[in-house]
Model the fold of this input.
Amino acid sequence: MAWFLLSAAIVAEVAGTLSLRASDGFTRGWFTLASLAGYAVALVLLGFVLKHGMPVGVAYGIWAATGVALVAVLGRVLFGDALTVPMAFGLALIMAGVLLVETGATR
Done:
């Protein structure tokens, strides 16, 4: 259940961040509301993940790293944002670091 909630929290955070980008500096009302709602839902779901016993370092690391990677890729697709080879390498390093934190937490 914790993994399902964490996945939902990631989706909500990514939706909130992409809506923030689309809000054009809070000048487009519906996107501003969607951004605030996405962040609120993400934080509530992350709280439930922690309540289900997932260690905070693991939950937050996966939430943040996956969110960064998805926003970078989707920002490229939806908004034409830059996504260079060094940036992609950096994202891979972040994901590798989170994987190490996750596997280290089970020992």
